[in-house]
Amino acid sequence: MEVNRHDQESVKCVVVGDAGTGKSRLVCARAYGHTYSKKQLAARHVPTVFAIDEYRNNRIVQERSNCMVDGVAVKLLIWDTFGDHDKDRRYAYENANAVILCYSTHSRQSYDNCRNKWKPEIRKYCPNVPLVLNATQVDLRYAEQDEVWKSINELNIGIRGHFSNSLNADELLLPEDGRQLAKEIDAAGYYETSMINNYGVNQLFENAVRMALVQRRKLRFWNSQLRQVLKPQAQKPYLLPKRSLPNVSAETSTYWSDIKSTVGNPDYADIQFIVRGTVIYAHNIILCAAWPRFHDLVKAVGIINKYNRTDSDQISLENTITGLKFLYYKKNCQQNSYIRKNLSADHIVFTVDQRITLRAFWKMLEYLYSCQLEKNLERDLLIELHIAADILSLDGLQVILANLADGKPYKNAVITDDARQKFIARMKMLYTSDHFQASIAPDATFEAGDTIIPVNRVLVTCRCDVLAAMFSGSFLESGEQHAKLPGICKDTLLSFLEYLYTDECELKSDFALEVLVLANQFCLSRLVSICESFMAEELREIDNDYDLRNWAVNKNVIHLLRIAEMHNAFNLHACCVAYISNNYLEIQRQHSKFFRESIDYLTQKKIEEERWPPSWYSAELQMYEKEYGKRNQDIDKQSVKKRRQKRRLFNVRH
């Protein structure tokens, strides 16, 4: 059984307020030392009350109830109550030394009830007891900027009893509202708490004890230990860390569907397959990337390399791949202007083995173009495909067909991923090899400054609708097969083409913004998102490292925000807004004029609403520093007074 010290002061503190304001969690946080996660706090409110018997039955509660306040040993007994207005709390108020009245910062009703309901009841039973006003759940002021709270709110689950409705920033109660209410109800102090990190919990009860002891000192003025009790301390305002910049991810790729859409398309085709008398068009660069043996053959015989051409109009070549016979035409279809415009002047004709059916060869081409084969194919087609793959030595296709035959299509996912990675790697090799000229016969050029870069129209047009219109419509580029891109540097154009050819883009800080602008001009939303992701990551790194931020960087972010808005980079625009909001005071101090002139009114308003720290926090911090300085002066005066009293005591003459 616990034995109290003879000099220990017992303080009974009663906690009241509406249901759902977090009274019981507040009491448990102080009595047990509990901490709560956001998910725990998100549970639907169930009315509970902390049992006073815990002070006799629970060792942890007993130990934590004993505390020291300004050198005074205190036994703190906290009484929890039900928040329903019709409950009888007369017994709880009996012999109370302090009353803590709670309201939620997200509940205007609980705020109004403090004035209309709770103050009359408290003064009825405890007319001379110190009243402390407590604003709970202050973390909800930042809920709109917190991803966890936002996701919980979207699920529309009841959070702490009052979150069943969606969050509304206009309903949040700020510290100035709490201070105004404290004046109206004659509260001795105003404090705020949050269960996220137990902010203000110990400070609330410690100052409630101070108020009770100061009140007790009026009746027991001879008690020496009560004389050293200080006035209640000011509370530093609650501030969450900076919010993280939004995560920006690239859009879903359409690369393989774009490539597959060119199967059998005669536009820009430079290959013809004759399958049982039927002509099927294909494209050399895609087959070279998908079929290594085919690429090796093309390089070996020198069919495409312009330096190895012969002067004859038709050349028969020895077949090096079983099942195919090759013919080379130097001149083709000059009598047809459409074909001359959309087919390469030099192209290859392949005669396919008669054992390969038309539908099997078409399906095989679809596999080569997409590195993927459908799961649900007819049995007869599977047999025909197996024959074609065996004749043409397509090992990857043979493995996929074997898995389908064995009823194990799930194994093909790994094979497809591996084949696509190899396809991209070979395409990148072709892209960086002698500017495409060594083996794959480009049929158009891009001009950037003094640099002319050859390209393959089949790839750039299937990947970009704007380029498709330029090269096929009534534009100048369609006749000349040449496109000028003024104001674009070589590195920017190469990164742009790398994306078209490989669906990847190696960016650098020097020209990432130029690539974004070019991508927007050509309506490539995925490339825009890739650039956004790259620059957002750089912004996040700068935002998290104070040493990386400087005068020039902050000005560049304002400039970047303007460019992002002009070029439909909405995700990057959001990141810039978040960055400026996080560093609002610093940027205002450095570039206030440029900020006002460069950013439109609505964006400025949004930044000011989301600024860190909020304007109300700055005002509260100034008030706290003023109160804290005044308290330190009082402590210094009290210390000087004690020293003088001691000197007078020792200087007394006997």
TrEMBL record:
One of its GO terms (molecular function) is GTPase activity. It comes from Trichoplax adhaerens. This is BTB domain-containing protein. NCBIfam families: small_GTP. Keywords: GTP-binding, Nucleotide-binding. The keyword Ribonucleoprotein does not apply. Residues 269-377, 442-509 form the BTB domain. The lineage of its organism: Eukaryota, Metazoa, Placozoa, Uniplacotomia, Trichoplacea. GO terms for biological process: actin filament organization; cortical cytoskeleton organization; establishment or maintenance of cell polarity; regulation of actin cytoskeleton organization; regulation of cell shape; signal transduction; small GTPase-mediated signal transduction. InterPro entries: BTB/POZ_dom (IPR000210), P-loop_NTPase (IPR027417), SKP1/BTB/POZ_sf (IPR011333), Small_GTP-bd (IPR005225), Small_GTPase (IPR001806), Small_GTPase_Rho (IPR003578). The keyword GTP-binding applies. One of its GO terms (cellular component) is cytoskeleton.
